[in-house]
Amino acid sequence: MHGQQPRPTAEKAGGNPRSHGRARCFQTVAGLECVRMIWQALAWYAAVTVGGVTALGLLRRLGVGSGAAWAVARLVGCTAIGYLAWLAGWLGLSHWWWAGLVAVLPLLWWGRRAYRQLEPRTWLEAELVGLGAFVLLAFMRLPALAVTATEKPMDLAILATLMRPGAIPPGDPWLAGVSLPYYYLGFVPWVVPAKVCGFAPDVVFNLLLPTLTAVSAQAAWALARSLGGSRRAGVLAGFLVVFTGTFDGWRQLFAGAALSAIDPWPSSRAIKGTITEFPLFTFQLGDLHPHLLCVPLALVAVFLARALRKSERWSLPNLMLVALIYGFASAANPWCALPIGLAILLAVTADENGFVRPTGAGRGPWLQVLAVGGLGWLACFPFWRYFHPPTQGFGLVHTGTRTSEMLLLLGGVLVPLLLLGWELAWRLGGVELARRQFWRALWLAGMVAAAIVTKRVLLAVALGLLVLLAFTVVRGGQRRVRPALALTLVPLALLAFMEVFYFKDPYGEEFYRMNTVFKASHLALTLLAVGVPVLLEWLGRRRKRLAAVGAAALIVAGLPHLAAYAARALSARVAGWEGLTWMAPGEPAAVAWLRKQPAGTVLIEAIGPAYSDAARMSASSGVPAALGWENHEGVWRGAAVEPESRRRKALIEDLYRSNNPDTVRRNAGELGAGLIVVGSVERRLYPEPGLAAVLRAGKVAFQRGDCIIVAVPR
Description:
Layout (H helix, E strand, L loop, with lengths): L9 H4 L3 H37 L2 H6 L4 H25 L13 H7 L1 H6 L2 H21 L11 H11 L28 H7 L3 H26 L4 H13 L4 H7 L9 H4 L11 H7 L4 H21 L5 H17 L4 H13 E2 L2 E2 L7 H17 L1 H6 L7 E3 L6 H25 L5 H22 L2 H18 L7 H19 E3 L10 H27 L3 H13 L2 H12 L16 H9 L7 E2 L11 H6 L8 H8 L4 H16 L3 H11 L3 E4 L1 H6 L2 H9 L2 E6 L2 E5 L3
Parallel strand pairs: 5-6
Antiparallel strand pairs: 1-2, 3-4, 6-8, 7-8
């Protein structure tokens, strides 16, 4: 029992005039913050929209309808402009992002006819899908705008580095003097709008997340419609590709958790020893990682492949546009290169009229898909030339996914797929009842036998559905549902793959298949979010009750997660789009000062473990540090970087602990650094006499609040 609570005093009850004054002051400040947030969001949205308008002519010439063209235009336009700017960076232009603006006016002029053909009814639905997703995600992220913890500092470091003057490839923000060995291309489409708006990287970071939500929802809407789905299926796909949750929220509710206390973190670790992010978790968490950045790129690449198949004009410009988006998706997240390549192949070869085999006249589409792959790789060749991640090969999985884990993570999408399989297996038997019963029983028996032999239920289910859907796609004549069935083959193949194979990485035996399950299951959920609503429509025309059950499972699965996020957002305090409010007093101002420093500036700051607040200044400003998160450098570069990391770490530790200004200057010189940070983290980690020696080693270049930056002679 809580016991008797104290009676409120007059001040607590609201009787004190000072309390009223403070409340009115707080309300005024909060109102001003809301106005400023809305203005910044509108400015950003307008900049991204202008980039999209430039692509309408390209898309209309490809044969894309007005509504669908508007839906994918922002992503295509910003990618095309960003690509041209990126190429200028490879040619050595330090302010390379401005080169992208050169293409805006020619593209606007080239597509002028498309603008005259636009009517509100053709693009309004697509715009509402994107705008609704933008607003809803922005609202749900109000309590999570601080760009700290998890992988956010690393993602911000890459974005901030790209927004600083410097040629391409960008420098490593956490190992000054060398280029970045990580996937950064997913940020490139958004750098030009960021520079046009003039916002700080942390503001762009928080605005980019709802933007990715909007363009992903619009891409899913357009792709679902191109697969034969109705408006309802398109809207549902646009919702699910961003806001899909899992049954783990219900598990927590039934275990006694309050709605507001539902914790999405264990839901994102549903399979032991792995990461199992689902769309809602990924977008709300806000780690701008490759698997998130590539979602709209991957969906638009598949959509454009469908448009290319329908178009009668297989010209080189059309192929190059599809190849550019596919190339960016693959370079933004190499994990998706093969799956999305397969999805493009199926989008081109499996349409409503039949499956095109690579023989005779059917060779054309297959060759064109090969051309898309080749041109996509060639378009991003400058990236691949310098990107050489450490690889360790494949291994065989020895601990499969348990049935309970499968149901908690994938139950919402597997239920409608199994109901679909129930109907498809029945139809394999033709018109005779006995044959229909035989084929359905054979399909079910095959999955049961596979589960018993392999002891992996998820593998058996995925293979059973994969074989059934593949057989349906390849055989027979005209099938309106064939494109959606063909797309669904890719996520099923991913789920089967992760139950048999894994990519070896340096995470140890306990987490040996962590990354494989992470990347495979996330992409599978993304693609299923688009394909399943279309398949449910087909099922609903034949078995309404089965379709209703499947739709209920699909939608209801994630409601607790969605409601929990919304409940937390309702009580959030509005504080602006800035993501550095978590820092100590004076440190955000220090970051702003660092951003104004010239190219070539190198700083030294506290070093610490991954996911800590160490390396915060380099991450937030884009000014490279002599050493940041040492662990991540090892993951990016492999064991070869360890001697250099240890050398730099020893010099930095000695610098902050030596109590000798001469040692400070000498170590800073060896590291090529001209600035040394003394802030809240340094005071927590290093002794006061060592910090005093740092202050005596040079001139105070910046001082505010708890933060001092010392300039030492180089």
